[in-house]
Structure formats: C-alpha cells, structure tokens
Structure of Protein-L-isoaspartate O-methyltransferase:
Amino acid sequence: MLGILNARRGERVWEVGAGTGWNAALMAHVVGPQNVTSVEVDAKVAGQAADHLERLAPAPG
C-alpha cells in the first residue's frame, strides 16, 4: 500500500482508519510527521495508535 502511494518528503497524507498507528508512523518517516493526519472512529483504538505514534514517530519539536 505504501509503495503504491509513492509519497515524497513534504507531501501531506491523510489516513482513514489509524489502526495500530504503524502505517502513520511509516508515512511520518517518509513525508515528515507534521504532514500526516490519521483518523480513527474507535476511541480505544485511537488512544492505542496515539501511544504507538508518540514512541515511533514523535511530532517535531
């Protein structure tokens, strides 16, 4: 999926369905964390994804 996306540094990415946050973390490494928006409707899953993302792809300081 990420190979097909062919995202490049600086491009903005919107992900629907955050799941574990893994794809968002990978995209953050490619395009920059400030360029990734990931949404999740399940509050518990969203919280878990946020925890994972904080460790894997912290927001720029």
